[in-house]
Each structure stands twice: as C-alpha cells, then as structure tokens.
UniProtKB/TrEMBL annotation:
SMART domains attached to this UniProt entry: Zn_pept (SM00631)
Family: Belongs to the peptidase M14 family.
Name used for this protein in its record: Peptidase M14
UniProt organism field: Olleya marilimosa
Active site positions, chain numbering: 280 (proton donor/acceptor)
PROSITE patterns referenced in this protein's UniProt entry, alphabetically: PEPTIDASE_M14
Peptidase M14 domain location: 9-303
InterPro entries per UniProt: Peptidase_M14
C-alpha cells in the first residue's frame, strides 16, 4: 500500500461532516445511521450520564481487530480518521482487508467526556487508569466487548499534547506509537513483538510523507492502563497517539496521517505480511521527548537577566468550538526547548496588557514589547 494510493484514498473518502477538535456523540450518530445495512451498528452500553456507547462491526474475515477511540473525550483526532477509514470501506480499493478481517470499532467510548471536551468521564475518572478496577460503566463496556469479541489485535486510539518531540530534536511527534509492556521488566514477548511489527510497518509506510516526525511512546508498565492489560492477556495491542504538525492546532493534517496509519496497520494485519521486521526496527523509532512549548519568547529582559518565556495554549470549549487561550507557564532559560512559534524580544522587557512586567500564569491575547503589541493568538 504505497503513499500515492493512501493520499488518493484520503482525498476521496475523507468524512466532510467532521472537522476541528470538538467531536461529540450527536455529530457521529447520523454518520452511523447512514451506513449500509451490512454494517452492524449496535448499542453495547451506556455512559455514566446514560449516553449510548456504540459499536460498529464490519468485515467477514477470521482475523478479529478491535479498535476504540475517544476513551479520553478531548482526544478526537483519531475519531475523525476512523470515520474516514469507514467511508473508505464503501469503495472497492481495500475490500481485501474486510475479507481477511472482522473489525469491531467503538468510535466514542467516552461520550460524556466528549460532550464536555474533557479527558475524564462524568465521574472525573480517567478510563485509561481503570483497567483493573473496572469502576466505571464505560470501562465495563470495553472489557465486556474485549472478552466477547476475543480480538487477535487491538488498536487503542488516542491524542497527545503539543509538547512532545521526536527524541530531543526540533521535530514535533505528529504520530507516536507504542507496543505496551506485559510486565515490569518490559520483556519482548511474542505478543509484544506482533504489535511491534505492525508499528514498524506503519513507520516504514509513513516515512516518505512524515519523515522524522514519528515517535515511540514510553513503555513503562502499568496494569491499570487498558493497553497494558490487553497486551498482558496476549492480545497484541497498538497504541496510536495523534500529535502536532506545524500550524495544525485543529489536527486536520494529523488526521490524515492517522488515517494512513490505520490503513497501513490493517493492510499488514490482513495480509499476514512477513516483511522480516525485528524488534530492532521498532526500537529504532526515537522515544518521545518533551521539548516543545506552543510559543517561546526569546531573549526577554527580566529582573536584570535575559530569560525565555514559555507559553502554552489552554483548550477551552466555548460555543461548541475549542478556543486556544495562551498562558505563561515558564520564565527561565529555555535554550534546550523549542517553540512551535518563536518571538525574539531582542533584550527588551516583555509587558502584560496592563504594562506591568510579564508574570507566570499571565493569560491574554497579546504581550507588549518595545511599545508594540505582539499577538499570541493562533
């Protein structure tokens, strides 16, 4: 599956009804209602607030693949890509995947968190730390689905913050992947290796289009995390993390790369490819660093010193849209960090909107440098 085909498929089948960062249940229900009758859509449970948790089953093949998105309600990029992928199955180009695989897709595991645009569910619980206790209805739904479906592979679909870099470089981690550990020793078991090989196939397929912007997520073992739990039950599990691409705060470019990664993963799984991948291919993918701020103001005069000012955007849901509010989170030497946007203060004082010296936790749309207002907005 080459890059030219992937780009053509994405252009053809991208779901136009979904865009931006805010995706809730009311947006995806009409899309599921309009799918062909051969696509089995069913309600498999309810959230804390009684919202439906929906499942879509498609394909007739013997290899069973379970995937779920928006376990964290504010991580919507993969949900958009999932519907782009679902649309693609209406065409003839990749029907071989559906002949080899049966896909069970939970496009929105946490509808309450998705509606409120929060990471947590309505009980303020992180569902990705509830794999052992199963204290939440959403966790119980996913666990029951796993047990009943008995998948051969799991795709755990998430989004990550803008701070992540590929290693310690100035390249943002637009996509990151993980084959979770099965034990405290992080042993490379046969199950982990299967997941590693899928990730290696994704990485190989995307490097031409996303060179040096793919990272590897930390593999510290935590049995409370769903991916670690399912991996420990010998279901090869691949964590997807959709991250930042230059100027892509609505994650529309990242969405396209997630889409391609999904098809590359399924194509590899469906064709049972033996491409000779080894664990070394997986570990060659650089581990994520944390080297980015959204904005860095360089060379600011601050209390008779020259300092850098780190600013990150806070995401806030307003009028059904996500607004990005700049907030000062660091004033120090940030020479080891990068800004997605950088401003040079040229040894001038940086002032708040009331002409006082810039301070930690300052939130406003602009700063003042040498009597000039400099916008901090996107």
């Amino acid at each position: 599956m080459d890059n030219q085909l992937l780009n053509s498929l994405y252009k053809t089948y991208k779901a136009p009804a979904l865009s931006g960062r805010y995706i809730n249940l009311n947006m995806i229900k009409p899309l599921l209602d309009n799918l062909p009758k051969s696509y089995n859509v069913e309600v498999i449970g309810q959230s804390v607030l009684g919202e439906d948790i929906l499942s879509l089953t498609i394909g007739t093949g013997p290899i069973k693949v379970l995937m779920w998105s928006q376990m964290h309600g504010n991580e919507s990029t993969t949900t958009k890509a999932v519907f782009d992928m679902i649309n693609t199955f209406s065409g003839v180009e990749i029907q071989s995947i559906l002949k080899a695989c049966t896909l069970k897709i939970l496009p929105m595991l946490n509808p309450d968190g998705s509606s409120a645009y929060t990471r947590l569910n309505a009980n303020n619980i992180d569902l990705n730390r509830d794999a052992q206790d199963l204290s939440q209805p959403e966790s119980k739904v996913l666990s029951a689905c796993f047990n009943n479906f008995n998948p051969d592979y799991c795709l755990n679909l998430h989004g990550q913050r803008t701070l992540f870099s590929v290693g310690d470089t100035n390249k943002p981690a637009t996509l990151s992947f993980l084959s979770p550990s099965q034990d405290e020793l992080r042993s490379v078991t046969s199950t982990r290796l299967k997941a590693m090989n899928v990730i290696s196939a994704i990485n190989t397929g995307l490097q031409a289009d996303l060179a040096n912007q793919i990272g590897r997520y930390d593999d510290g073992f935590n049995i409370n995390c769903v991916g670690d739990m399912f991996q420990s039950l010998n279901a090869p599990t691949i964590l997807f993390e959709a991250g930042h691409y230059k100027d892509d705060y609505n994650r529309e470019v990242a969405r396209g790369f997630v889409y391609k990664a999904l098809l590359l993963a399924l194509n590899y799984i469906a064709n049972d490819n033996d491409l000779g991948y080894k664990m070394e291919d997986y570990f060659k993918i650089p581990e994520n660093g944390k080297r980015f701020y959204d904005i860095i103001i360089r060379n600011a005069k601050y209390n008779d010193q020259v300092q850098d000012i780190g600013i990150n955007y806070l995401e806030q849901l307003m009028d059904n849209k996500v607004k990005f509010r700049p907030k000062v989170v660091a004033i120090s030497d940030l020479s080891q960090f990068y800004g997605h946007k950088e401003i040079d203060a040229n040894n001038n004082v940086v002032l708040n909107n009331d002409n006082t010296l810039i301070s930690m936790d300052y939130e406003n749309d602009f700063v003042i440098v040498n009597n000039v207002k400099l916008s901090l907005n996107l």
